[in-house]
Amino acid sequence: MPKTITWTRRHILSLVDFMPDEYNTILQTAASFREVLSRRTKKVPALQGQVVANLFFEPSTRTRSSFELAAKRLSADILNFAPGTSSLTKGETILDTAKTYLAMGADILVVRHQAAGVPLAIAQEMDRLQSGTSILNAGDGQHEHPSQALLDLFTLCSLLNPNNPTLEQLKGKKIAIVGDILHSRVARSNIWSLTAAGAQVHLAAPPTLLPKLFLDTLPDAPNGKLFIHWNLATALEGADFVMTLRLQKERMAQNLLPSLREYHQQYGITRDRLKPCQPDVKILHPGPANRGVEISSDLMDDPNLSLISQQVTNGVAVRMALLYLLGYSKANEYN
Amino acid sequence: MPKTITWTRRHILSLVDFMPDEYNTILQTAASFREVLSRRTKKVPALQGQVVANLFFEPSTRTRSSFELAAKRLSADILNFAPGTSSLTKGETILDTAKTYLAMGADILVVRHQAAGVPLAIAQEMDRLQSGTSILNAGDGQHEHPSQALLDLFTLCSLLNPNNPTLEQLKGKKIAIVGDILHSRVARSNIWSLTAAGAQVHLAAPPTLLPKLFLDTLPDAPNGKLFIHWNLATALEGADFVMTLRLQKERMAQNLLPSLREYHQQYGITRDRLKPCQPDVKILHPGPANRGVEISSDLMDDPNLSLISQQVTNGVAVRMALLYLLGYSKANEYN
Amino acid sequence: MPKTITWTRRHILSLVDFMPDEYNTILQTAASFREVLSRRTKKVPALQGQVVANLFFEPSTRTRSSFELAAKRLSADILNFAPGTSSLTKGETILDTAKTYLAMGADILVVRHQAAGVPLAIAQEMDRLQSGTSILNAGDGQHEHPSQALLDLFTLCSLLNPNNPTLEQLKGKKIAIVGDILHSRVARSNIWSLTAAGAQVHLAAPPTLLPKLFLDTLPDAPNGKLFIHWNLATALEGADFVMTLRLQKERMAQNLLPSLREYHQQYGITRDRLKPCQPDVKILHPGPANRGVEISSDLMDDPNLSLISQQVTNGVAVRMALLYLLGYSKANEYN
């Protein structure tokens, strides 16, 4: 652990107003947990006796497992809320469900929901009740997915400086985000963290998935460092990093795309397409990937190019850091 | 923990034959666990190495999570039986499923089933096999839900005497239970515990959900202290506590109710309706609630009136007490 | 634990090439864990901090619970992969799913899949990546179910010699396997372990479920000790042990069987049918059983004849042994 940690935020809902110090605290805390994970015994007693409840109203294996493992490695107790077998079908409101877990003694609620704003609404209710419970947004609709963007950030910064990852490392770097920007909570969260780091963020997608007015949909969009491309080649030119996004197949049913094949031909990332990038360019993908659609299969499997498996590994360390910092701020309240 | 505990019951299936001493032992054990739960580290090693299997043939989030957390805080290992992915669809009998968990080494089986009597049948089979395994009924059909009634009892008694909750506190209190009495296992279990405490229990519901002959359906009904009302006002007059029950929406399809709206108008608990009650009346609800049907939304959220969130909190403490006492009786057998 | 253990196999995928020393190491390790399970505190810290991921693409309660409990009793952390709520529905490949768990830090993947060969394919990918992760086949299509055959083996050997179970005990014993041999991964795995022990294995089933050419479907079938019967009586004559297999009801829809009733009349195991067996014959069944189809109800419940509940109990001990040995080989790599 960093010797002195300053952390005051009770909920992690969005990165839109994150301060550089907060990013750096997370990066450094994650770096120390990353080191714990390389030991044979990968557990620390930091959250012993605390309860983390996973409220995944939208199903997920990857993110839920990652949070679950992070919580277990901090020695917390975990409650998994299974929407299928839940009281929701019995007409209970989401806030009442959350309050039930609060009343059971949950210290941190990790919330995923298909509708934007649900984690915020729960957090406001928790604060109104002066409960001290923390809410961690694990993805809400097309709004934000902060822990994904933070693990992406950690993956990039710790690649560039393994011993001391900080926001500084990304200053002036060119990062292309390619894919269904319009519907992507991953892209939204990454826009805040990457521009906060001083990176140049280049968004690339077909016009239906990246309308001219996209920037206007962002609150206080940092226009200066954000660029929009409908042509993949210009977005990739000189890029240090390329983030591909998962293409939801339902976009075609919505007439936003002609076909997966055409999408791949124009916006799929392939070895050939990467030629105008920096020679040491690296690829990220939040997973799960459609091989041969948004990214070619051989790229995914090339350890010299793909950071995908590091993203997953770092995901556990970053989520340990987030749970730890939220628990830490709570511990201070106890003392 | 109380210094000396006497507990001999191996299974908790029904409250019909519970003795005052048993109620008081549970209340006092729960009180000490309630204190544990207010600490930062909410765990005790009481059931370390023992296995609690949650056999929930009927889906449930709330009760299952409560038992799961209670077991975790006693340091037990938990097995969750998921009916959807189970051997039941392969034609295995319920008793064979239970015996599989017995053979795996389960010490306590927490059983919920949509049919009345299943926990009893499993308990009888466990005893026939001289297994020493305990069965805890977590709700069986329209029969009983003992742990819910015990947490209700604990909530009432510890409100009246936080340091030393006993049955005594409820002597002569007037408690109204309002709603779908006929189909409610919660009501049935509460009838036994509350009348055992010497409370006056007033049941209120439309005639279709509380037939004249209801008392005859109870084994050895304690008629003296049980009253039936088809008119809410008389049931609430002078009441110290009001328990509302969840209204299953399928009752309308069964032609037992005209509409949710009419039900609310006649039997829904609202601030206005509470006027004839005692000035410090409190409301309970087993959850999940239909806001605006059996209870108005503002009442649910009023911390001066609603005990709902305390019920959930106490649920964990009471279930810890039940698991502890069953495990305790087992420990004595080991010695 | 045996004082010195030699174990070098990284994956347990099939028993076809298992060596006698490997069987004996498992039997002896399981025997020592069986002893642990009879204590009040049934936990050892052997796999503390290691992660066991249950990847059950095919649903299962019994085998998954058994592995989960085994892992918990070794103090490992467990991740359960739930196929219903998984990324698979999002088009992710099985190998990508497995690699996600690898990247999260899983040390052992327990894999069940409806298609034969999936655990092998994952193991090959893990080795290609030099990950050191172990794969344990928990049942793949109609191919193999090694942990089931090993618990059957342990049940037989430890019945004959509780203190020192070894392959030796089964030399020359006659073991009948009765039922749907053709489609049974349990039968296939048992064929390898039992013939390796020098037992005489007699397979009995209707011709549709045990075609003449069945032996040709086995790789290097040990013909010398394997016998095929279409008549149950000759298979049972003088048998020391009878293994019944679960009859999948879908076999009738496939026109492989006339009716369950006729199947029971000709191949169902009943007390009467056992008369030509050895006087101390014992029955095994991998569960879940169809009472009254492949086995009569009274036989299942007769503790003098049925080893079924011992199989379940031993299943936990044997799976602890398998996870321990795989973790053990890994620990050596760390040192």
UniProtKB/TrEMBL annotation, chains A, B, C:
InterPro entries per UniProt: Asp/Orn_carbamoyltranf_P-bd, Asp/Orn_carbamoylTrfase, Asp/Orn_carbamoylTrfase_sf, Asp_carbamoyltransf, Asp_carbamoyltransf_Asp/Orn-bd
EC number(s) on file: 2.1.3.2
UniProt KW keywords: Pyrimidine biosynthesis, Transferase
Top class in the EC scheme: transferase
Biochemical pathway: Pyrimidine metabolism; UMP biosynthesis via de novo pathway; (S)-dihydroorotate from bicarbonate: step 2/3
Function: Catalyzes the condensation of carbamoyl phosphate and aspartate to form carbamoyl aspartate and inorganic phosphate, the committed step in the de novo pyrimidine nucleotide biosynthesis pathway.
Protein name: Aspartate carbamoyltransferase
Organism, as annotated: Lusitaniella coriacea LEGE 07157
Underlying gene: pyrB
